[in-house]
Design goal:
Helix content is 35%, strand content 34%. The chain contains 5 helices and 7 strands. The radius of gyration is 16 Å and the shape is globular.
Length: 172
Amino acid sequence: MQVETRLATVSDAQFIALLGRVTFAETFGHLFRDPEDLKEYFNRTFSVAKIEKSISQSTNKFWITFVDKLPVAYAKLKLDSPSDFIKQAKVCQLQKIYVLRDFLSLKIGYQLQTLLLEEATAGGFEKIWLSVLVENERAVSFYKKNNFVEVGKHDFQIGKEHFNFLAMARDL
């Protein structure tokens, strides 16, 4: 099995858009009572045009992972991303680590996180933060094992659904 992770380019936007939709549905789809809310969120958040624009911004870094040439995961780091929960000036955000369910056992999420942390450290950032759904126990546990601590709570609404999130952070 050949695993390749690299920085993503605009030409990877269609892979990332599709990975975003599939992995989000795998993880959170069951939480939506109205399928139209989920579809609307996908169209707004994971359109190819939006991902292309996001990749093109200098404050964003994306990585994509392929297993035997199949796109299976991606990650996004947002540079210079302050949080209400953090006082330091040099703060960045781990915005996404999404891995297709069938490939979770390969520890690709950990590899992507390592790349994000190395990039953030090299950029001179003091702290990195993220938001994670409270009910996503697998992710919360993963981040705790990797030295992230809870720094706050916030909510987020998608369509008719309200979600509770933990803000977590760690020093770099």
